[in-house]
Structures are given as C-alpha cells and as structure tokens.
Design goal:
- The protein is an alpha/beta fold.
- It has 14 helices and 23 strands.
- The strands form six sheets. A four-stranded mixed beta sheet has the order 2-15-17-16, covered by helices on one side.
- α1 runs parallel beside α2, α5 runs parallel beside α6 and α8 packs parallel to α13.
- The protein is globular, with a radius of gyration of 21 Å.
C-alpha cells in the first residue's frame, strides 16, 4: 500500500509524536466482525436487504466484492459519503446467490481472514465450485482448522498445505454431527454453523472456551434455528432464514485504540458514540478498568436495526495505571486488542504478563514478536514468551516501527507515541490501518492537539 487511505495532515506519513491533549468525540467505522456476517448472511437469506456500513475498511469491502462476484450484491456505495450501503438479493435455500459458475470462480478475500473462513462454511453446502484466495498475509494463515471439521460432515475442501488457496466443491449432502473444537474460534463456529444449516438434523458445536457470539446473534435475528448456550452452539437443519436490513454499529476494536490512548494520556477526554457493546467484545474495557482507567459506558441495548447492543463510551485520562497479569479465558476476550493492551502495560507501574496467547503468532503478523520488538525499540522493557510477553515501563525513545503490514501493530505504536510511552515513532506502513480502520489517521488528527 503506497497511500494512506483517509489520512490527512501531519500524520499521513506515519510519523507520530506525543500530543498535548486528546479531546473530542468520535463515531467509528463499522464493526467488521458484524459487517462480514450482515453481508454474507443476507446474501444467503430469502429476500432483499440493505446493509449500511460506516466507513468500511478493506476487509469488509473484500467481502462485499466477493458477494458481488457471486451475484448476491446489487449495488455497493449508495448514499452519503460517510456511509456505504450494500444492497443484497439473497438466494435463500434455492441458492440463487452464492452459486459459483460451472467453471469455478476465483474469489479474492484480500486480507480478510473472517471472510475466507465464513465463506468456506457457506459454500460447503451449496452447489458449485469456488477457489478462495487472499493476499500474502492471509495466505500464510491456517485454514485447516475450518477445512478439517467441515470435511468430517461431508464437505469437499482442498487446501494448499493447510493454507489458501482453498477450493470448495459445494454439496447439499452434508451430515449433522457434534463438533468438539480444540481451539476456541468464532470464525470456525461460524463456518460450521453455516454448513449446519445445509445439513439434515442437529449440529452441535462445543468450544473449549469463550468466543464471540456475532454469528449466533445475527442468524437468530434473521430467523434461523440457531442458539447459543454457554460454550455450545446448536443448529437445526436444513433451514433457511429471511433477509433483514441492518445498520452495523461502530467497531469496539477500533474504539480500543482511543480507550487505551485516553487512559494513558494525562489530559484526555474522548467520547465514542454508537459503538457496538457485545459482551463478548468488551473485555478491553474490563482490562483497562482493572488497570485503573476511568471509563464510563452507557448501553442502549439491542435495537430494531441491529441485534447487537449499542451505546456510548467515555474515557478520561489522568489516572495512574497498575500492572496486570492476563491468562486463561480472559485472553480470548481481548485477542485483537492485546497489542494495544501491551502499550498500556508499558505505561503501568510494575510488571505485567501475558500467557496463553499463542494465537497471536498466526494473525496478520506474528504479533508477539512485533509487539516485543517494537516496545524494545521505543525503550520499554519487554521480553518475548512463546505464548505471550512480560512488559514493564522503560525510558521512552524515538524509533522506527516494523509492522509487517499489520493494521493493529501500526495503530498500537501510534497510540504509544501519542501518549508518551514512546518517543517519536515512524511507522513503516501506516496505510495498513485501512484494513480495519480507514480513517484512523484522520480521527487521530481530530483528537490530538
């Protein structure tokens, strides 16, 4: 990526220094986890719907363009510039949509791991052949964790040594079985649930730990026979569901950057409105509060236009933070926010630890290595573990930051520089933020004075 999408002014170059204050209000880009599901599920549903996505990142647009190639999207981008509205005509159980051509479609998922894994499950129970591809980062990510359990129910899926490209030869003859996952993964549960809707009987998916429940919430809201109880997801098939217009709320993973920045900066007051507050996604708030941050939340609950709870978050700075130890189930609650939490650890009094986060090594980058390397470069004390890290405060200094094209690494070290955890940083790929947060640099400039 050569240009910073949505960036203006002094931060467009990826050079970030400490701000005198961080003050203002924000409405964030749409939650990409919810947006992926809103688009895909409406493409699979009976009827027509419109999905409104505020300032979608590249991952969400990748999903929309794949669905457009499959014939389920009528238009992309209608409406005011602040929003993208995607009109979908779902195929329902007739599979009029999501029907790859007889010669086989090549579907480019870009950097979107959620899109690829959910699509594997969606296509597994529908006729046709498709090959899912992605960029270099996505191609390096594991796909057998989805492919293997889907094969156990009769799906015909071929990976390349466990990675993309992934060929799916769709079939209606899927079996309903009980899955016991070895790794807690909302993406795997989502793929298996979609396949379960094409199978005859009851599909039961048991996770070894907590996961996000966006799939179950969205499918149930659309009328599918899907329920979640604790760590168990149950699907009754074969079954269809109805398309439904939805406005996707703001992304709490994007809000996390400003929650950490506001908690660390001595002069900060940031108000984030209309953000998704799914209980499986608010672990970042719990962690920061435990560390001593001043964060207030007002929830409006689910609305008619979205199955997710939505509300306002206010974070104020000036409080000292204390160290924290993260392990076990708590890690899954904040898996995407861990690089940002590492910046808070580097500002806290005492020594913080993270364990049980081996999953970070197979994200868009090896996030354990990138976080520890970057923190050492900016003067913090950081030690790498196989499944986490040990971090304590150091002496801030200027540094160049290697991101490996990872959006969360780029945003995390921008926050470190804004708040004085680091000196001035130069981020090697600031445009990577556009994967999930295309207006990150613009919003940073709005808040920083």
């Amino acid at each position: 990526m050569s240009d910073v999408v949505g960036a203006t002014g002094v931060y467009a170059s990826g050079i970030v220094a400490a701000a005198d204050s961080l003050v203002g209000g924000l409405r964030l880009p749409a939650d990409k986890s919810v947006a992926h599901r809103a688009l895909l599920f409406n493409a699979m549903a009976e009827g027509e719907a419109e999905v409104t996505v505020a300032r979608p990142g590249e991952d969400v647009l990748s999903m929309a363009h794949v669905l457009q190639r499959l014939g389920a999207v009528e238009s992309i981008g209608e409406g005011p510039a602040e929003f993208t509205r995607v009109r979908l005509r779902g195929g329902g159980t007739r599979a009029a949509a999501l029907l790859p051509g007889a010669g086989g479609e090549t579907l480019d998922c870009g950097n979107a791991g959620t899109a690829m894994r959910l699509l594997i499950g969606a296509l597994a129970g529908r006729p046709g052949v498709a090959t899912l591809v992605g960029d270099a980062s996505l191609t390096a990510r594991p796909m057998e964790r989805v492919a293997a359990p889907l094969r156990s129910v009769g799906a015909d899926i071929v990976t390349e040594e466990g990675h993309a490209p992934v060929m799916v030869r769709g079939s209606r003859k899927l079996r309903a079985i009980e899955h016991r996952l070895s790794v807690a993964s909302a993406q795997v549960i989502g793929a298996l649930a979609l396949a379960g809707l094409a199978a005859q009987g009851t599909t039961v998916i048991t996770s070894p730990g907590p996961t996000r429940d966006h799939t179950e919430r969205m499918l149930a809201w659309l009328g599918a026979p899907v329920r979640r109880e604790g760590y168990v997801t149950t699907v009754e098939g074969p079954a269809g569901f109805r398309a439904r217009t939805i406005d996707v709320p703001g992304d709490i993973s994007g809000a996390a950057a400003w929650l950490v920045a506001g908690a660390l900066h001595p002069d900060a007051h940031i108000v984030i409105e209309e953000v998704g507050l799914n209980p499986s996604r608010t672990g970042i708030i719990d962690v920061l509060r435990e560390m001593g941050a001043d964060i207030k939340v007002a929830s409006d609950g689910p609305t008619e236009w979205c199955p997710e709870p939505v509300g306002t978050i206010i974070v104020s700075g000036g409080r000292p933070l204390r160290a924290i130890d993260l392990s076990g189930d708590r890690v899954a609650d904040v898996i995407d926010e861990l690089p940002l939490i590492a910046m808070a650890m580097a500002a806290a009094e005492g020594t913080s630890t993270l364990s049980g986060a081996r999953e970070l090594r197979v994200k868009e980058s090896d996030r354990i290595s990138r976080v520890v390397e970057g923190l050492q470069a900016v003067g913090a004390h950081a030690e790498e573990r196989e499944d986490g890290w040990i971090i304590s405060r150091g002496t801030p200094r200027d540094a160049a930051i290697r991101t490996d094209g990872d959006h969360r690494i780029a945003m995390s070290f921008a926050v470190a520089a804004l708040t004085g955890v680091a000196g001035t940083v130069e981020i090697d790929d600031p445009a990577s933020a556009a994967v999930s947060y295309p207006t990150f640099w613009t919003d940073l400039e709005h808040l920083a004075t």
